[in-house]
Design brief:
- The chain has 219 residues and is α+β, with helices and mostly antiparallel strands.
- It has helices at residues 3-21, 77-86, 99-106, 137-146, 167-188, 198-216, and strands at 31-36, 39-42, 58-60, 92-96, 128-129, 152-155, 159-164.
- The radius of gyration is 17 Å and the shape is globular.
- The structure holds zinc ion (ZN).
- Zinc ion is lined by residues 29, 76, 95, 97, 134, 158-159.
- The site of zinc ion has 7 residues, from loops.
Length: 219
């Protein structure tokens, strides 16, 4: 194992711990991956962040193969693999069941242009991927399709997923998606949001191309 792989394994563990500490996830349900050349590193299935060790991160080869003598990869490895394969601009994927994102996903709602930070997901809304059974190829395909040109999406009756050029960026986007979901949920309790118009969202998206990273507050 080279230094790059060792560093990425440690960083994946840190992201899992951070998701847990920030309330983005509970138990062993979240999963995180990072590109490693032609392969992918991904969290193992069924291990809670507090018990996770860098040696347990699974290296999945380009053919969907992994070492037989180690932990199995997350059941969502196909979803991570499809996103990393289809998006050369993406090096990291973060998936979690953060509460407010999951509330909206269970209610079948995407997040409209009610706040300019919605644009961190790469468009004027945070879209909702259609439901399919967890761990299935159908779910992987639905999420890949919904995320075309986007950085984040809600997943119907399931949770949320965020992408980025780095693990820290993907985590920051997932955290912002949860914040936007909580705000939207709050507005729905008092009559619904006052939406920004499409022209303003176009302006914000243009600004985010240059100022996006500062606006996000990299972690
Ligand atoms: Zn999940």
């Amino acid at each position: 194992m080279d230094a790059r792989e060792a560093d990425l394994r440690e960083e994946i563990v840190r992201v899992m711990l951070a998701m847990d500490a920030r309330g983005l996830n509970r138990g062993a349900s979240g999963n995180v991956s990072a590109r490693l050349g032609e392969a992918m590193l991904i969290t193992p299935t069924g291990i809670i962040p507090a018990d996770l060790d860098a040696s347990q991160i699974v290296r999945v080869g380009p053919g969907g193969d992994w070492p037989a003598d180690g932990p199995r990869p997350s059941s969502e490895w196909r979803m991570h693999e499809g996103l990393l394969r289809g998006r050369p601009d993406v090096n990291a994927v973060v998936h979690c069941h953060s509460r407010h994102a999951t509330i909206l996903a269970c209610a079948g709602r995407d997040i409209p242009s009610m706040h300019y930070m919605v644009a961190v997901a790469g468009g004027s809304s945070i879209p909702l991927a259609p439901y399919a059974t967890f761990g299935s190829k159908a779910l992987a395909d639905a999420v890949v399709e919904t995320l075309a040109g986007r950085n984040a999406a809600l997943m119907a009756n399931h949770g949320q997923i965020a992408l980025g050029p780095s693990l820290s960026r993907a985590l920051a986007i997932a955290e912002e998606v949860e914040e936007q979901a909580a705000v939207y949920w709050g507005t729905l309790a008092i009559g619904g949001p006052n939406l920004l118009d499409p022209e303003e969202m176009t302006r914000v998206l243009e600004r985010f191309k240059t100022y996006g990273q500062q606006a996000m507050g990299e972690v």
